[in-house]
């Protein structure tokens, strides 16, 4: 998968067992190992939000039009520092548009 360093690529589109449409992004580098990680995460989140809100998801996958959308970040370990702030802000901003954002830390 492309990961958050490739800010303009949607890593994965799938459908969860509960019917929610899932857009997953992956960060396989440990947090704090690259100075641009928080900026890359923010850009990647913006790209995912544009993809949903501007109709790209619906054009590519018409069956998603009436469905719930969740963006999920799969990453190594818990978010800390500025990266955590970016994620917390994203939760609020995306929720205002009816999009769920979830961080899925792997340990």
Give the gist of this structure.
The protein has 107 residues and is α/β, with parallel strands linked by helices. Helix content is 35%, strand content 25%.
Folded structure, characterized:
The chain has 107 residues and is an alpha/beta fold. The protein has a single domain, classed as Transcription Regulator spoIIAA. 35% of the residues lie in helices and 25% in strands. It has a 4-stranded mixed sheet. α3 links the parallel β3 and β4. The longest helix has 17 residues. The chain is globular. The mean pLDDT is 94.
Secondary-structure blueprint:
Layout: E1 12-15, E2 21-27, H1 37-53, H2 56-60, E3 69-76, H3 81-95, E4 99-106
Parallel strand pairs: 2-3, 3-4
Antiparallel strand pairs: 1-2
List keywords for this structure.
107 residues; alpha/beta; 4 strands; 3 helices; Transcription Regulator spoIIAA; globular
Radius of gyration: 13 Å
Shape field: globular
Our estimate of the beta-strand percent is 25-35%
> How many beta-strand runs?
4
List the domain count as a whole number: 1
Query: Main beta sheet: strand number and arrangement?
Result: 4 strands, mixed
Give me the strand/helix succession: EEHHEHE
Question: How many helices?
Answer: 3
Rounded mean pLDDT score: 94
Which structural class best describes the helix and strand composition? Answer: alpha/beta
Order of the strands making up the biggest sheet:
1-2-3-4
